[in-house]
Amino acid sequence: MSQQIRNIRQRFDRIFHGTNAERPRDVECGSLTNAYMGFAVSKLYIKKYFDENALNESIEMINNIQNTFLEMLNESTWMDAESKAKTMNQHIGYPDYLGSDNNTKLENDYAEYYSDTSGFPAGILQTPFFNKDAPKYLNYGGKH
């Protein structure tokens, strides 16, 4: 961005968000890159840092949480059966196509990814929120 545009942005942020300082350029660039190309950034993160064993353990933990939640819903009297059945979908780690170098098609994943879901992105499935080697009770509490 040109200096003129950055100055306008800084004035806007100061008025509407109460911030006084311009964000460092690396933070601004990282934020914009993640906002506009989040899935591409996720692909790079997954290839370099993500542990498949951690994904499997997190799936087990989240399934346990979901099953407990569904048991509570089944006992509730304020929801009809159809609403109860539609209550929670899960997205854990990352969409399957990010794990493949051969798949270049997004299909409807992006549009459906955020509706009526409980999300656990790959970046959060690490310390301090999740550690595959920690006792399960720490992972359920999200503290390490």
TrEMBL record:
GO terms for cellular component: plasma membrane. Residues 118-142 form the Peptidase M13 C-terminal domain. Residues 1-95 form the Peptidase M13 N-terminal domain. The keyword Metal-binding applies. Pfam families: Peptidase_M13 (PF01431), Peptidase_M13_N (PF05649). InterPro entries: MetalloPept_cat_dom_sf, Peptidase_M13, Peptidase_M13_C, Peptidase_M13_dom_2, Peptidase_M13_N. GO terms for biological process: protein processing. This is Peptidase M13 N-terminal domain-containing protein. It comes from Rotaria sordida.
